[in-house]
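Format notes (please read before filing issues)

Several people have asked whether sequences and structure tokens are stored in separate files. They are not. Every record keeps both together, in the order shown below: the sequence lines, then the token lines. Line labels are part of the format and must not be stripped during preprocessing.
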Amino acid sequence: MRQIVLLRGVNLGPRNRIAMPDLRKLLTNAGLGDVRTYLQSGNVVASSDLSPEQLARECKRHIAEEFALDLEVIVRTRDELAEVVERDPLGRVAVNPKRYQVSLLSAEPDPEVVSALAALAVAPEQFVAIGREFYAWHPHGIARSRLWARLAGRELGVSATARNWSTVTSLLEMADS
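Then the structure lines:
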């Protein structure tokens, strides 16, 4: 089964550095098939018969053992990622895919967390929560966005990692090829 493995906070600045060839080798040696990476920020497409939850745990363990890094790992199957793309609740307004972010969560967040996040979206920003994904449109960028600061924080009550729309759709294309 094709799966997408997303590492949180890899190769952003001087911390949590992992060379993608080393990550591919590690995951191949761990039993994943057809391991491919996208960009330098911990995006992996591979084949595995493990459930997404099991695969996330195994990748986290292998990365900790090999690279001495304690990273959050989020996994979606190819079909789950296709659903994320098909939903595209902000596609009509999100005209710049680099400023359209999808946060992929390890579990559904508490409804109170979702309400608090929605209240932080200041027009023309927009925010939609659907299941284990948050869709956020930041037309003026993320630098001064209070919403983005909370989406990128650890107060969500669940593990999360975000990718822009270009990356999400590229990962789906990779999973299909």
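For reference, the curators noted about this record: The longest strand covers residues 2-7. The CA atoms of residues 3 and 40 lie 18 Å apart.
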